[in-house]
Amino acid sequence: MTWEVVIGLEVHAELTTRTKMFCGCPTTFGASPNTQTCPICLGMPGTLPVINRRAIEFGVRTALAFNCRINTACRFARKHYYYPDMPKNFQISQYEEPLAEDGWLEIDVQGGTKRIGIQRLHMEEDVGKLIHDGTLETAPSSRVDFNRAGVPLMETVSKPELRSPEEAAAYLRAFRSVLMYLGVCDGNMEEGSMRCDANISLRRPGATELGTKVEIKNLNSFRNAQRALEFEVKRQAQALEAGEKIVQETRLFDADKGYTRSMRSKEYAHDYRYFPEPDLVPLKLEGAFVDGIRAALPELARAQQQRFVAQYGLPAYDAGILTQSRALAGYYEAAVSALAPGGSTASPASAKAVANWIMSELLRVVPGDDERAIAESPVPPAHLAGLIALIDDGTISGKIAKDVFEKMVRSREDARTIVQREGLTQVADTGAIAAIVDQVIAANPKAIADFKAGKTAAAKSLVGQVMKATQGKANPAIVNTLIEEKLAKV
Amino acid sequence: MTDPTRLTAHELTDAFRSGAATPSAVTEAYLGRIAKLDGKVRAYLTVTDGRARAAAAASDARYRAGKPLGPLDGVPISYKDVLSTRGVKTTCGSRILESWVPPFDATVVTRLAAAGVVPLGKSNMDEFAMGSSTEHSAFQLTANPWDLARVPGGSSGGPAAAVAGDLAAISLGTDTGGSIRQPGAFCGIVGMKPTYGRVSRYGLVAFASSLDQIGPFAKDVRDAALVLRAIAGVDPADATSVDVPVPDYAASLGEGMRGLRVGVLEYDTAGMDPDVQRAVTAAIDVLKGLGATTQAVTLPTADHGLAAYYIIAPAEASSNLARYDGVKYGLRALGKDLIDMESRTRAAGFGAEVKRRIMLGTYALSSGYYDAYYGKAQKVRTLIRRDFDAAFEHVDVIVGPTTPGVAFKHGEKEDPLAMYLNDVFTVPANLSGNPGISVPCGFSTSGLPIGLHLVGRAFDEATILRVAYAYEQATTWRTRRPELA
Amino acid sequence: MIERKDVEHVARLARLALSAAEIEKMREQLNGILAYIEKLNALATDDVEPTSHAVPMVNVMRDDAPGPCLPRDEALANAPDRAGEFFRVPRIIED
Ligand SMILES: [Mg+2]
Ligand SMILES: [Zn+2]
Questions:
Q1: Is B433 inside a domain boundary?
Q2: pTM of whole model > 0.80?
Q3: Looking at CA atoms only, how far is residue C54 from chain B in angstroms?
Q4: Mean of the pLDDT values across residues B395-417?
Q5: Domain ranges across chain A
Q6: Do B222 and B335 fall into the same domain?
Q7: What confidence tens digit (pLDDT) does each residue in B320-353 have?
Q8: Taking the alpha carbons of B392, B393, B394, B395 in that order, is the dihedral positive or negative?
């Protein structure tokens, strides 16, 4: 039996504002416990929230990038439930009038792209952190750190339009890319900057009604999201095929054991008792405020990828890798433009060469989605361009260049400095190379015989021997020509 | 000179400037009187004598240097215990905050400190400002200085009784449904609720956020004007405070009644104390005599104000009071697990009235009831605002009784609903946001004070102060004082 | 009419441990108050916008500028129970 998988994702992203959503406390991750709090984010009696304008700007920026409608009537509401990591025992969130609604995000799927609808995007405040003395079930007590309480959170809910765990993972990748390109979230899932819950149900292909959905919490990496959903697809399919009913419930993914398990079934359904936050007045997001944010939107990864293909003649695959982060794409373009000095356009060959070097060498030492690592790369774009220029003008061979690159990584020096100091300049003196070619031919009568017998591969081995004799410094083009000439004469 | 605790704030600062008195001497007189007589009134929960003496000494020095901070420098004040005071217990009249010491000052406290006032202490109140008699304080019953067997009104009964009993020159209360104006009326002093948004609520422990306002109690209208000027104005820490200019209220007090149109509120007289009706009618005649034109005003939806209020206020309260869970501050009761601890803490920490309102508010917001209760009440609120807007197209001020009756005896109103009816005239202005003031307008046959209620246009406190002043100056009620000693 | 089980449900939502007698008294009083509140139903409000703020204002925001934090000991000064740098709460059982 086949089943259609229906997945919707809810992503909470912490925004990279300097201060919290409703107070002036910093948002720095990893500070000593309970040192980044104030009366407001501790929910002390008598305190009042005030909206962080930049958080709203970030929300609008993201909503525009997700092609959403910005709601001109936007307001905060209180969402009530008791939990000790939430100082007021209500969360200031948005309910009936979220910041934005009804957008979409394009994701890569097999054989093309697909638009996934975005239902709503709203702003809220994060909660603190609970540290259990043992596991939650066994801990005799828990400790609370309120540093994170009040950090701006942006919640984005997709429509249930994802049709497989792979699509869900692709959605998360595309989502993260947009947020990071926009500079509104650092995308760091280990630190909890992006957290994901999924709703998943199965139904018969062609069915119009949705099946009973299960919510999975705690999906803290792309891989775990995909694994959890794959597990859940199997579990639900098995249950349905055995004639069982799916229970609407919340399940937790255990990443170590690779399965989802039911959270304690709720005796009483949550009753959040939303009502408009009386301490905050509504937002009317329109006109110059939104226009200004729209005008300042950066080029996003997908557009940049398409441009790289058109402008630099890159394969789509290369362009995709180079646009995995705004920093890497910037690195690429800086290196290419350094190779084409004076505002001229880089040749397709050098544009491709830069792409190759980044993909095969740079990304081995620098993670391509780590903005800071790229900014602090031991080989900056100008140095990489310098290295490629040395190959292009024949100063060094491609083989030597790889060694030079390793040295550049270690010493942070530019290529020319290393090549000159270590005498790696390639031998382009035809006379000197010819002498070595003669020696090699003389020492390899067997290869000559093979060549005469029609085994053209023998010529390759001779080239190899000449390169070896020159420690790779001989210009390979000259070596090839000379060998061809000599062999033609024997 | 006469007993300085009998003087108004402006009379005190006149004396400070002329050298006839010093802030320290007056502060000592107040501290002495509190020590001697507050056992009877029980207005104070905490007396901050050390802070008072230090502030008074600093004020002395400013007067000596000829550089007082303004018209309230050196004036002894009492704060309702719902206003945060850094380093001083702020209990809200509740067991749950019995030992709560805030690490910050309310904006009004900061502003008044900058104006040079002398903080005498924190005064009693109905728990979390829920009540009309101050009988719901977890700590003590406050007596009405006019009759110690009676309530001072509430929820700001402590600060009202302090001023009426000459235990403070001025005080600050809060008004969510009448909690300044009603005790002002019961205690025979001036009590004012400014326009919602006029005074920052930062540091006011929330009861019902969309209704709460801080305002002054004073021995006369001029003092109320001076205090309002000192505390009013936009505050970046309160997003609901409004950025409109704060006029010099005291300067325009003397402009008189000429040209003002007074709207006389028509109200249902069922259940009204006839003494109150008589006093209010007489007061309106006084205003006419001063040159006001009058016309009858009806607020057709105002009758429903109380019902709307008893949804909105408990709903917001149930939310605001959710934070008292024994985790971060305040009382903690022992429990076998977290939920048990929280539930026992709240059961032990809150009094009956607070529990009742939390229950009512939680119910009104709960799934399936929002539209029928909270949503409905918010719409009724719109209708009440429209009533006021329509009335203020024809009149500049609306006049009526502050309360249906005079101060009642302790324990007299057992039924919560009977207690709630006290607020019938004051609640509409909280729902609409309009400013209101209660000014003494006579006494009942049993010698208890009666208040005249004036409501004005939003942010037009100047007009109601001006009318109240004209009335006050044309009458002698303020010369009658309770005798405590 | 509010019934006993409604009172119990609401008490649980509000985290209030009420005795049986309190629940019964609460039920009576809440019914009394709600009966009074019923009078609102006499008002037609279908086309009326709700008022949640007495003063209509929009877009009150602050700059993303850091302010002072509380020193940890001040943050924890009023805590009924603490464990070193943390607030401490008893065993958590999900409801
Ligand atoms: Mg959320
Ligand atoms: Zn804070």
A1: no
A2: yes
A3: 5
A4: 95
A5: 4-293, 301-422, 430-489
A6: no
A7: 999 999 999 999 999 999 999 999 999 999 999 9
A8: positive
pLDDT over 80 at A234, yes or no = yes
The rounded distance, in Å, linking the Cα atoms of B43 and B46 is 9
C80 in contact with A, Cβ within 8 Å? no
Partner-chain contact A46 B204, CB within 8 Å: yes
Range C4-42 classified under CATH 1.10.20? yes
Nearest neighbour of A46 by CB, restricted to B102, B319, B339 = B102
Mutate to test the interface with C, among B329, B363, B366, B386 (most CBs of C within 10 A): B363
- Please state the domain count of chain B: 2
Residues A223, A244: Cα–Cα separation, whole Å: 29
Q: Tell me how crowded residue B200 is: count the other CB atoms within 10 A of its CB.
A: 24
Same-domain check for residues B243 and B306: no
Give residues 6 to 35 of A whose Cβ lies within 8 Å of B.
Answer: none
Instruction: Sketch the domain layout of chain C as residue ranges.
Output: 4-42
pLDDT at A265 over 60: no
CA nearest to A91 within chain B: B319
Q: Is position B467 within any domain?
A: no
The ligand whose atoms approach the alpha carbon of A127 most closely is: 1
SS3 content of chain B, % helix, strand, coil (to 5): 45, 15, 40
Whether C30 sits inside 8 A of B359 (CB atoms) is yes
C-alpha A278 – ligand 1 centre gap (Å): 19
User: If you measure from the C-alpha of residue A93 to the centroid of ligand 1, how many angstroms do you get, rounded to a whole number?
Assistant: 7
Is B262 inside any structural domain? no
B252 and B311 housed in the same domain: no
B320 shares a domain with B242: no
Whether B119 contacts B55, CB under 8 Å? yes
Task: Catalogue the active-site residues of B.
Answer: 80, 155, 179
pLDDT tens sequence across A145-154: 999 999 999 9
pLDDT classification of A432: cutoffs 50, 70, 90: confident
- Residue B437 to residue B200: CA distance in whole angstroms: 18
Map residue A242 onto helix, strand or coil: coil
pLDDT band at A343 (very low <50, low <70, confident <90, very high): low
Q: Touching check for C3 and chain B: CB below 8 Å?
A: no
State the CATH number of the domain containing residue B163.
3.90.1300.10
Taking an 8 Å cut-off on Cβ atoms, the answer to whether A146 and C87 are in contact is yes
Residues of chain C with pLDDT under 50: none
Check pLDDT > 50 for residue A267.
Answer: no
CB contact residues (below 8 A), chain B span 456-485, against chain C: 458
Distance, CA of A308 to CA of A127 (rounded, Å): 41
* B455: in domain: no
Clarify whether residues B317 and B241 are in a common domain: no
User: Does B328 touch chain C if contact means CB atoms closer than 8 Å?
Assistant: yes
Pair (B242, B327) in one structural domain? no
- State whether B222 and B133 are in the same domain: yes
Q: Which of residues 20-39 of C touch B (CB under 8 A)?
A: 22, 26, 29-30, 32-34, 36-39
Identify the CATH class of A430-489.
Answer: mainly alpha
The mean pLDDT of chain B is 97
Predicted ipTM of the assembly: 0.97
- pLDDT surpassing 90 at residue B231: yes
Range of the domain at B161: 4-257
Answer left, alpha or beta for residue A194, where phi above 0 means left and psi between -120 and 50 means alpha. beta
Q: Is C9 on the interface with A (CB under 8 A)?
A: yes
How many pairs of residues across B and C have Cβ atoms under 8 Å apart?
Answer: 171
Burial of A265 (0-12, 13-18, 19+ CB in 10 A): exposed
User: Counting Cβ atoms within 10 Å, is residue B375 exposed (0-12), middle (13-18) or buried (19+)?
Assistant: middle
- Predicted confidence at residue A440, as pLDDT, reads 86
The whole-angstrom separation of Cα B180 and Cα B243 is 24
- Average pLDDT on B187-198 reads 98
Same domain assignment for residues B310 and B182 = no
Q: How many CB atoms lie within 10 A of CB B476?
A: 8
* pLDDT for the residue B416: 84
